């Protein structure tokens, strides 16, 4: 069985999940791929819960 997606996002940390969510809200079919549970490994999983709360870039603020 094959499932077609328009975009594959590799990495389900905070950045990959945010990109996938934005694409989905724009109507794009997205496959979010990670080697573990979303947000559990890598930089997002070991961040200690710290997430930047401010950025002067309007595009990054919209993605947040």
UniProtKB/TrEMBL annotation:
- On the tree of life, the source organism's domain of life is Bacteria
Looking at the Swiss-Prot or TrEMBL record, what is one Pfam family this protein matches?
A: DAO
A GO cellular component entry from the record:
cytoplasm
PANTHER family, per the entry: SARCOSINE DEHYDROGENASE-RELATED
- Record's keyword annotation contains 4Fe-4S: no
Q: Give the matching InterPro entries.
A: FAD-dep_OxRdtase, FAD/NAD-bd_sf
The record's listing under Gene3D superfamilies reads: FAD/NAD(P)-binding domain (3.50.50.60)
Tell me which residues make up the FAD dependent oxidoreductase domain: 7-54
What is the protein name for this chain?
FAD-binding oxidoreductase
Coiled-coil residue spans: none
Q: Give one GO molecular function term.
A: oxidoreductase activity
Q: Which organism is it from?
A: Pseudomonas syringae pv. actinidiae ICMP 18807
């Amino acid at each position: 069985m094959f499932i077609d997606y328009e975009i594959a996002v590799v990495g389900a940390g905070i950045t990959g999940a945010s990109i996938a969510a934005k694409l989905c809200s724009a109507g794009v079919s997205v496959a979010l791929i990670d080697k573990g549970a979303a947000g559990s490994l890598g930089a997002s999983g070991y961040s200690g819960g710290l997430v930047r709360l401010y950025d002067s870039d309007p595009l990054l603020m919209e993605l947040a």
